[in-house]
Amino acid sequence: MKKISLLILLVIIVGNSGCERDDICAETTPTTPRIIIRLYDISNQESTKNAFNLRVQGVDNPDVLENYNIATTDSLVLPLRTDASITEYKLHKDYVYDDNGTPDDTSDDIIYGNEDILTIDYATEEIYVSRACGYKDTFKNVIVSQEDDGDNWIQLIQSVNDNLSVDDEKAAHYKIFH
Amino acid sequence: MLLFCVSGNAQNDSVVSAINDSIKIQNKYGLRIGADLSKPIRSFIDDDYKGFEINADYRLTRKIYLATEIGIEEKTTSTDFLNVTTTGSYLKAGVDYNLYKNWLDMENMIYSGFRVGASTFSHTRNSYLVYSQNQYWTPQFSSDEAKDFDGLTAIWAELIFGIKAEVLNNLYFGLNVQFKMLLSETEPDNFENIYIPGFNKTYDSGGFGFGIGYNISYLIPFYKKDKAKETALEEIKESEEIIEE
């Protein structure tokens, strides 16, 4: 009888083992990558160069991109839309918001600086990761370009390598010279 | 040569008299056919599961049984990012070894067994949502266009521990646990086998699987064999010890 009750206990334990770590997508698992763009000096193309007071916001996105709300940086890490084959960002350098001493009245507010629109075109590809994470996207034929507004602070955009794909976040994918 | 025996419907208090009497104890040999009740029960209470299994064993010797199971399953695995329906059938075959020394002519089992299992199955990916840690752009791409992953197979080895008890004449109830180890599988393209019929859920950490069974089965007796003299002596002694306790 002892053997039988032990077995029944075993059945209950096996049947109810609910702690399944497999079902949580770990933060360390590489999933959909962001595009990494480094900023370089146009007059000294070997060295990186900071953009000052840079504000980054997606076109059609109501929020400023986290970590880029007036930042000084030589590196852009931009999430790409997985539900579209194009993502546009407003890169606003030397951003200063002057409310003219009247915070309640927005009609006389002035925004200083230089805003360029960066356009990233690509094709998405779904890659299976795991049962918990499901699928991630990688990006193929990634082309980064900008609109010419007559006063661009971005002077040159170059791909780091020839295959134009964004598969992971291990290294920079594009260079911007300014 | 002395033979120790008890009549067919032996009860505990007849054990003592058995020593003096001389009637034959006989073991029944035959084919036992049954079904796993846990699968239809689960099919009834779990919307994401449908399954049925019939099983059979054939007694070779006093302790060794040839055993087989055959079944079909349909299981929908659903997470926040993935919804997949797996359908397929499986066949398992192997041997059960009875570890339990029965009193007299009782025919119960506490057994350990070994199986080789094989399954053919397919997955239908019903929907998925692309996973992105960064949620600056929402929602992520999602698709509910069904995609099939067909023609998949898997082979595994299995250890079984269980009991079978004769509750009515020739009618048995059984309970068992199964520990499985995957030997080979065909990996679907750009997906993985998250569920294998007969093997059950797979785990990221390795090729291990678990299962339980709750069986009802009926024995079709073919013939009877006398229990060996030695065995009978041994078992009656044991019975007496237990009664004394």
Question: Mind sketching the topology for me?
Answer:
The complex is a heterodimer of chains A (178) and B (245).
Chain A: H1 2-16, E1 35-40, E2 51-58, E3 64-73, E4 75-78, E5 86-98, E6 110-130, E7 134-146, E8 156-159, E9 174-177
Parallel strand pairs in A: 1-9
Antiparallel strand pairs in A: 1-4, 2-3, 2-5, 5-6, 6-7, 8-9
Chain B: H1 15-20, E1 26-36, H2 38-45, E2 49-59, E3 64-78, E4 82-98, E5 109-129, E6 142-143, E7 147-168, E8 171-185, E9 195-196, E10 200-201, E11 208-226, H3 229-244
Antiparallel strand pairs in B: 1-2, 1-11, 2-3, 3-4, 4-5, 5-6, 5-7, 7-8, 8-11, 9-10
What's the quick description here?
The complex is a heterodimer of chains A (178) and B (245). Chain A is 8% helix and 47% strand.
The CATH class assignment of the largest domain in chain B is Mainly Beta
How confident overall, as mean pLDDT of chain A?
88
Q: What characterizes the major β-sheet of chain A?
A: 5 strands, antiparallel
The chain-level structural class of chain B is mainly beta
Major sheet of chain B: size, sense and barrel closure? 8 strands, antiparallel, barrel
Percentage beta strand of chain A = over 45%
Instruction: Output the number of helix runs of chain B.
Output: 3
Radius of gyration of chain B: 24 Å
Separate helix tally of chain A = 1
What does this structure look like?
The complex is a heterodimer of chains A (178) and B (245). With 178 residues, chain A is mainly β. Chain A has one domain (22-177). Chain A has one helix and nine strands. Chain A has one helix spanning 2-16, and strands at 35-40, 51-58, 64-73, 75-78, 86-98, 110-130, 134-146, 156-159, 174-177. In chain A, the strands form two sheets. Chain A has a five-stranded antiparallel sheet, with no helix packed on it. Chain A has a four-stranded mixed sheet with strand order 4-1-9-8, with no helix packed on it. In chain A, β6 and β7 form a beta hairpin. The radius of gyration of chain A is 24 Å and the shape is extended. Chain A starts with a helix and ends with a strand. Helices cover 12% and strands 56% of the residues of chain B. Chain B has helices spanning 15-20, 38-45, 229-244; strands at residues 26-36, 49-59, 64-78, 82-98, 109-129, 142-143, 147-168, 171-185, 195-196, 200-201, 208-226. In chain B, the strands form two sheets. Chain B has an eight-stranded antiparallel β-barrel with strand order 1-2-3-4-5-7-8-11. In chain B, strands 9-10 form a two-stranded antiparallel sheet. Chains A and B meet through α1, β6 and β7 of A and β5 and β7 of B.
